Amino acid sequence: MTSLWRDGEFLKFWVGQTISDFGDQITLLALPLTAVITLHAGPVEMGVLAAVAAAPTALFSLFAGVWVDRLPRRRILIVADLGRAVLLATVPIAFVLGLLSMAQLYVVGFAVGTLSVFFVVAYQAYLPGLVGRPQLVDANGKMNASGSLAQLAGPGVAGVLVQLFTAPMPVFVDAISFLASVTGLSLIRRMEPLVVARPRDMRAEIREGLSALLRHPVLRTLVAASAIFVLFLSAQTAIFILYLARDLGVDPPVLGLILSTGAVGALLGALFASDIARRLGIGPSFILGAVLGTIGLVSRALLFESPEATVATIAAMQFVLFFGVSLFNVNGPSLRQALTPGHLLGRVNASYRFLVWGTGPFGALLGGTLGAVLDLRVVLLVAGLACLTVFPIIVLSPLPHIRTVPSSEPAPVTS
Q: Are 364 and 51 in contact (CB under 8 A)?
């Protein structure tokens, strides 16, 4: 089995995505701070902003899966990157012209979120054909590791850039980074598997993808556990930056450092995910990720008399949270990609995103709405404790007994 370090085609894809991930992390901080600092958004507006960015997952994932299984996947990736570059560039341009508004942020967030749905579904379907199923845990680990490196450096750089140039301007860096991703994708010469010809019935194709996902006991467990986790993580995410900036009075550079501390955990989680999966088994390592993620979410709400102790604790819990999230993000997709027949990858991945990440808008609105009537710290605590409901689902499933990733393409589940 050839090492991915010597696989030039994978490296082209990986390098381009790493640069794009770096730009994304700058926008992750700069866009909410644009709303808070430049446009003076409150909890409800922050909840709406998070919700409109997440809504396309619920609205378009199933349709994206059908098109990803109908069309060459690399072409979809390139078009999605180009579109996101153009959309994000409009934010700093509108700011310079004095035209920036929350309405524009809502529109850009929704449109970028829509293209991201197509990109992620296509990317997860494209990767098995690019590297082969036996290499999936390694490939997903490397992709998540580089993404975590971007999380480590991006928020800190974003905090400084926001301080120097005001919040909207760093978004332009993300727009440029998508062009690096396009370059890497355009240079790949490895042929992807041919699209399987079939009757084009949108509803039947969507049903086929949902059925393949929900009839498989392991994939069904991943859906249920992940949907709960994403729902309450989204509720926290919608108000977390507002909580730090408004309630705790954290300055943008320190806020960036807190997010970067979480990125250290994410990086180490991604780097060690393969080793942990080999030692514990891929199923138990997924469960470990759920344990650590829940601890991190609950502990974000800890508060001490000393502001320094509170900020340090939140930073430490960011580390724990995102170490666990990395185990989720490496082992979960690897299992899903390995357990799904190739011709169904687009629709199964899309169905998963619809059912799991489709909870994100509801979580964001829940967090924003509760944050408008309750103390933000209380909302963080309640959302974290609610994640405990995933554990009966996981423990009673086949997941604890799965040790390795299947190396050959499975037959479709028919019953």
A: yes
CA 281, CA 120: separation in Å to the nearest integer? 26
**414 within a domain of the structure (yes/no):** no
Angle at the Cα of 352 (from 43 to 395), degrees rounded to 5? 90
CATH number at residue 78: 1.20.1250.20
Are 28 and 155 in contact, with CB atoms under 8 Å apart?
yes
Torsion on CA atoms 171, 119, 192, 187, rounded to nearest 10: -10
pTM of the model as a whole? 0.71
Domain count, the chain: 1
Q: 170-227, pLDDT tens digit by residue?
A: 788 888 888 888 988 899 988 887 766 666 778 888 888 899 899 999 999 999 999 9
Residue 192 lies in a domain: no
Token readout for 358 is 């489709």
CA atoms within 13 A on the CB side of 408: 2
C-alpha–C-alpha distance, residues 139 and 151, integer Å: 18
User: Distance between CA atoms of 327 and 1, rounded to whole angstroms?
Assistant: 24
Q: In this structure, is residue 8 part of a structural domain?
A: yes
pLDDT digit string, tens, across residues 226-285: 999 999 999 998 889 888 888 888 887 888 788 778 878 888 888 888 889 889 988 899
Domain that holds residue 251: 4-187+201-401
User: Are 106 and 48 in contact, with CB atoms under 8 Å apart?
Assistant: yes
Helix pair angle (73-96, 8-33), 10° resolution? 30
Query: Quick check: is 10 in a domain?
Result: yes
SS3 402: coil
Q: What DSSP element (H or E) covers 214?
A: helix 202-214
